[in-house]
Amino acid sequence: MYMELTTVDEWTRRKRSSTEKCTREMNEPSCCLYSLQVNFERAGWDFIIAPKLYDAQMCSGECRLHHVSTFLIILVLNFRYHDEDEYFEANA
To answer: Which GO cellular component does the record give, naming just one (predicted)?
Structure first.
């Protein structure tokens, strides 16, 4: 059994500026984006035909608040100042 996918290039968006790409040698304490190679063959996932390798990427280090989405900031602040059950009842 296999699945065949066809992609269509219709619309593309510009990539946002992301965190700095770092290497282990840099030993950067601030927010950095590291390469995290996933090898599907070595993992024994023979049902994945392509790609054989995938760079999942991993954030590490101390990230300042501006890297977090606005929605998440509002959600955290809301939980901090209100009862959790009260929030879910009001937004159900």
So the answer is: extracellular space
CB 68 within 8 A of CB 56: no
48 and 79 in a common domain: no
- Taking the whole predicted model, whether its pTM rises above 0.70 is answered as no
CB contact at 8 A, 27 and 55: no
User: Is the separation of the CB atoms in 64 and 90 below 8 Å?
Assistant: no
Sign for the CA dihedral angle at 44, 45, 47, 52 comes to: negative
81 or 23: which carries more pLDDT confidence?
Answer: 23
Tell me, what CATH number does 52's domain have?
2.10.90.10
DSSP state, residue 52: S
